[in-house]
Design brief:
Structural class: mainly alpha
Distance between the termini: 67 Å
Largest sheet: 2 strands, antiparallel
Shape: flat
Radius of gyration: 21 Å
Number of strands: 2
Strand order of the largest sheet: 1-2
Length: about 120
């Protein structure tokens, strides 16, 4: 058992010995599980109503659910949900690697030849 600080409420708690990506006290873990279900339901129900709304910010989702933005951001950190900001961070790194690989496959290693058209 180790003493940890909850990422959600910032209180100290004793963990059960398991390794967690995001340390949460039992009360916050229970609260965030219920919030996750609520957020998932909202995202599912509003995806077609808002024109396939897939890029929602943490602030908007928190406002729609009537919760603190920090709660949504902890869910994002846990990889339970994805907001527009978290999606763009993950996609940009992956897209950059794909672009680099494509450039390496071009004649000349993807470098532009100046003076030729």
């Amino acid at each position: 058992m180790a003493l940890k600080i909850c990422d959600h409420c910032s209180r100290a708690y004793l963990d059960g010995g398991e390794e967690e990506k995001t340390p949460l006290c039992p009360d916050c873990a229970e609260y965030l599980e219920a919030l996750y279900r609520q957020a998932w339901t909202w995202l599912r129900d509003h995806s077609s109503a808002d024109g396939r709304l897939r890029r929602v910010t943490s602030a908007r989702l928190a406002e729609e659910l009537g919760v603190d933005v920090k709660s949504i951001e902890v869910l994002v950190k846990m990889d339970r949900i994805q907001t527009s900001a978290s999606a763009s961070k993950k996609a940009s790194g992956k897209d950059l690697e794909t672009l680099k690989a494509l450039r390496r496959g071009l004649p000349g290693g993807g470098r532009e030849r100046r003076g030729r058209r």
